[in-house]
Design goal:
By secondary structure, this protein is an alpha+beta fold. It folds into 4 domains: about 5-130, 2-Layer Sandwich (N Utilization Substance Protein A, Chain:P, domain 4), CATH 3.30.1480; about 140-195, Nucleic acid-binding proteins (OB fold (Dihydrolipoamide Acetyltransferase, E2P)); about 200-275, 2-Layer Sandwich (GMP Synthetase, Chain A, domain 3), CATH 3.30.300; about 280-344, GMP Synthetase, Chain A, domain 3 (2-Layer Sandwich), CATH 3.30.300.20. The protein contains 12 helices and 15 strands. It has helices at about 5-15, 20-35, 75-85, 100-105, 105-130, 200-210, 215, 245-250, 255-265, 280-285, 315-320, 325-330; strands spanning about 45-50, 55-65, 75, 90-95, 135-145, 150-155, 155-160, 175-185, 195, 220-230, 230-240, 270-275, 290-300, 305-310, 335-340. The N and C termini lie far apart (about 105 Å). About 30% of the residues are buried.
Amino acid sequence: MKVNVWNTILQLSKERGVEPRIIIQAIEESLRVASARFFIHGEDIQVLFRPERGELRVYVSKKAVLHPKNPARELSLEEARGIRPGANPGDEVEVDLPADTLGRISAQAAKQVIFQKVRDAEQEKIYGQFAPRLGEIITGVVRRFENTVIILEVNKTDIVFPLREKLFNEEFQRGDSVKAVIVQVLRGFRGPQIIVSRANAQFLAKLLELEIPEIANGTIEIRDIVRQPGERAKVAVESKERDIDPIGACIGVKGNRILAVSKELAGEKIDIIEWNPSPILYAKAALSPAKVENVLIQDTADKVLLASVSGDQLSLAIGKKGINVKLASRLVGWKISIQEEQRT
């Protein structure tokens, strides 16, 4: 049977970004499924499909026997000779799906299989595109809102931006451009799901890497990040070279580097702290911007530190709603208690 679908396949391939061989395989599979309504005995259905030549053939191979017992593999000698005159017992005879039947078999069923196969290939392509980009920053456009998520579009692909992953003081409208980091790429029942975040610590790390060359080239290492997204973050850094000040390099001239990052985070305050293996010295730095008079180990087993600050630094050390001391405790890995320094 002659068919002329090669141009259609090429067009579909171009539109969907799927290799022509994937579409051809999908069509072959759809024909096997639809042909099973004609070959009803579980025959091994063969599909010969050469779209570039305009050729299509669907057939099964059966053995000619005098008394057939297995209709999936055998046919009577009389039936065999009706197909191929001169056939003898034991000959393999190819039984073609009649042309009129081939033209009538469930087009809808075939179409569903084709589109499912193409969709599967598209989804696998999407997964292959985004899985290696885990941890990268991407920029998407807000397309719609669905319950607890915002759907962004990136290169004609839907990206999931959960509301819990945005900064608390951010509002978005359809058409807005959103920058976020890829935190998960999942294979799901309905296809791959790419999830992004602006609240994740990794987003801040990537922004710093983009803004600060010394972090990008590895001269300065980010040891840890803790955040109260949209309000305050503390970033512990360490310089791999003695002559480079990690705090100064991260802040930049007149604070230009860190201000650029803070602006992207809707004004989130970012404290840059030099990492220190000593919990006492680390805690003293982590309570920035407060000036700490002294830090003592109060309980080694439970990892509790006691920091003393002057009266005018007390509220700064604790921070609004206790955020500053909470973030410092998370950064150091010790619980930090604050007390006012008693002057004598």
